[in-house]
Structures are given as structure tokens and as C-alpha cells.
Amino acid sequence: xxxxxxxxxQEAGGWNDSPDFTEDNENRRVSVNKKTEEVEAFEPKDKxxxxxxxxxxxxxxxxxxxxxxxxxxxxxxxxxxSHPDPDSNPPDETYELEYVYGYRCEDSxxxxxxxxxxxxxxxxxxxxxxLDKEANTQTFFGGGEVENKSKQVASDxxxxxxxxxxxxxxxxxxxxxxxxxxxxxxxxxxxxxxQTGEKKARFKLERNSRAxxxxxxxxxxx
Length: 222
Fold this sequence. Notes:
four-stranded antiparallel β-sheet; Methylamine Dehydrogenase, Chain H; single chain; disordered N terminus; mainly beta; elongated; 1 helix; 2 domains
């Protein structure tokens, strides 16, 4: 019966620490054949053969189960057998802004004025509001239909497309003009009529100006 030197080969199923083994054989489980006294790689008899595609199929099935758990309606939604062709044209409907509730005062001050008719002029969201307190009706600067320059981005060519941050009225000379400034990457400033809500002028700030936090009109409304 042969013998092996201590430190060369460990017991069957152990880890090889012999410096005679190459790096490729490091950490490989080995055993000693008692008949031939040769060192052999140790392989369990009942080791199952790996099936790469089988594992892929199992992983895909598990991913699908997780996806269905998050969106369970996917498997229930079915396309009908017959349906009209998609129509990308806008519907033949129009809308009109009638009344707006609310007023911006949490982070803005001195933004309520009277116009020449004694009606209130103030701001909320991206609208300039003219309130007839006797009839309880409103006229607006903004709020109409606008063109979308890109997805979810409305044009600010005619009125504000983001929250108004400040407002001023020429209280010294007639109170007929209001100036408003908005928040945004390229904020706009508008001058509009406090009686009709019609736009008089528009000014565009440089990109990344972030917001117009304060605005004032001179006594001669310039």
C-alpha cells in the first residue's frame, strides 16, 4: 500500500494545498486512488449535470411571475376582435375656463390690487385673475388652449405656462396694466390689461434664470 507525504495531498474530498499543483488546479477537490496511488479529481457520483437552457427557462418563468405580480392586469387585457382604427385627430370639442378657486399667498406677498373698475386683480397657478366681486364672475389672463412644443410642454408665446410668482399693477397711473413673472428654466414676464386680460407685451429671460421672484412697474407703467 502506498503512502503519500504529509502536506502533498489531503484526505478524499479535501482541498489540495500542494505547491506542486498549478494555479489551474488550486482549490480543486481531489482524492487518492488506493490501487494506483494516483491523485484524481474528486467528483460526486450523484452530481447532476447542469443544463444552461433549463436554468434560463426557470429564470424567465420566475421573472414573468414577478412581472405579473406587479401588473396583474396584463394577462387579463385582450385586444378585441374588431375595433375602429385609431384616430389621432383632436375631438370636436372645446372648453372655456369659467371660474378658478385659490390664490397664491404662501410664498408671495403684495400681489392683490384693484383695477380702474374696482375689481380685484390677483394670481393663482399660471393665471392672472380679474374678479368682479359684485357679480362674482372672473376674467382671465391665460387659461386658453396652447400649442405643445414637445411632450407635456406648453408654449408660453401668449401667456404663462408655469406658476406665476409675482404681480404688480401701475397704481400711480390708472391701474390698467399688470406685470407678472413666472417660474421655469426660461421664465417669461407678461404685461396685460387689468380690465380685459389682453396681453400687451412679453419678455423672455435667459435660460436657467429659474424664476422671476419680484417685479415692479414704474409710475408711468414702463
